[in-house]
Amino acid sequence: MIIMNQRMIKRISLLIAYVLAIYIVFPDNAYGMHIMEGFLPFNWAAFWWIAMIPFVIAGVRSIKKTVTLYPNLKMLLGMAGAFAFVLSALKIPSVTGSCSHPTGVGLGTILFGPAAMTVLGMIVLIFQALLLAHGGITTLGANTFSMGIVGPFVSYGIYRGLKKLGAPQWLSIFMAATLGDLMTYVTTSIQLGLAFPAASGGVMASVLKFMSIFAFTQIPLAISEGLLTVMVFNILTAYSQKELQVLTAFTGKALSSIKRGVKA
Amino acid sequence: MIDIDSYAYSNNLKTVHPAEKSVFTMMTMVVCLTATTVITPLIVLAIMAGGIVIKAGIPARVFVKLMLVPLSFLLISVLTIAFSVSTNPAGFWLAQTIHGLTVGIHYPDLITAVHLFLRSLGAVSCLYFLALTTPMTEIITVLHKLKVPVIITELMVLIYRFIFVFMETATTIRRAQLSRSGYVSMKSSFRSLSRLSSALLGKVFVKSQELYNALAARCYSGEIRVLTKKRPVSLRNYLMITGFEIPLILLNLLWR
Q1: ∠ at Cα B56 (B55, B61), nearest 5°?
Q2: Contact call for B120 and A36, based on CB within 8 A
Q3: Is A216 in the B-facing interface, judged by CB distances under 8 Å?
């Protein structure tokens, strides 16, 4: 009986220690997952830089094409980048009670399309590294790959796919923003796992470790961001039809379907 | 409004040529990342801290505070690498078994984690050296010289300018919302923030059209030309950079 009690006490105290440790280590407000400067070994940092470049070139090409047709849209893109930076500095209450910062991946992708988002995402990440000390220069490749390439393309694919299946507007926006954020975090975990395989279990074990640890901040962040994006779009479709129409230059059909959705 | 930015314009190294500072930063960072010893990152950290606090004249308090910014990510990730969970208790260096599940540290993982911790701190100090001594506009000039596509540098100029405009607008709107209890509950915070975002986005559309009109009235032809300040190129600085880097590289190569 006494032994049982001791075991129970030990188990409970371990649980309390674990919960306390989590609360001490995790900050009150969670940013999107930026890999910090110097965290990736040189080879992996170089690998992700090289992996990022073709996407950036494609993005630059697509922007150039749009901008030669509509020169005023260059200003709009620049300001959209500034908007994304400011948005990421604001706090939203997370569903678990702490605060998190929106990434703007879902919102930007639905408005500007994934190709433009790759370039904008990269530039915003440079500014976040140099002005806010989030992320870094050597890890810019890896961060751009997760937040500027995987996130936007997943968001866009889900948004278009769900629209085609006839899902309601709010659901496709919510899923696009939430799953875009979640995939960003999964990608970052994979990047970290690949760079630091565990001594026992290798890459997979390491990826799972990172995913389960960062789930504490990233899953609530993704859900909050999904909710926020839906609310922003509700206001935009109600009051800014004309402006949304301008953006069809970037995404083609995606936004004209928003208009139809409102009329119906 | 952004601390790092205001120090970049007001430090003692702001007249040094931006290319020199960038070369120094990037070389040291690469040396720090390729280090196999624990000593190199510590030396890098010391050099950069000296450069930032003594040469650039940035208060030590500011530097220490900045070094703490990435600490939460660093601690979480390093601990994640060090600890592992397994059903097989063999091979652990330090472990605790509960219900057949073993939580513990493998010795090689611990070494990786300690190395990583120091290396990241060293690299972060390099990043701060560049960020705290070089204004963004000059970094953009360096990128332009490196033949980064014009569209990217031009977007950077625009974004840099409008970050401050929108930051001010966002702060004003947020203050107004706060003073009207806009953030008292979770529901109202979501409502306030979504209104803030869409109001800001509305401003984005209006301002960008205004900027385009203003530029078009001044013969805008698709390229924004900006005058850059000429900074003196100093041979002494380049010699100093080589003087710092060669011993570090040698240390990396020889200490194996």
Answers
A1: 105
A2: yes
A3: no
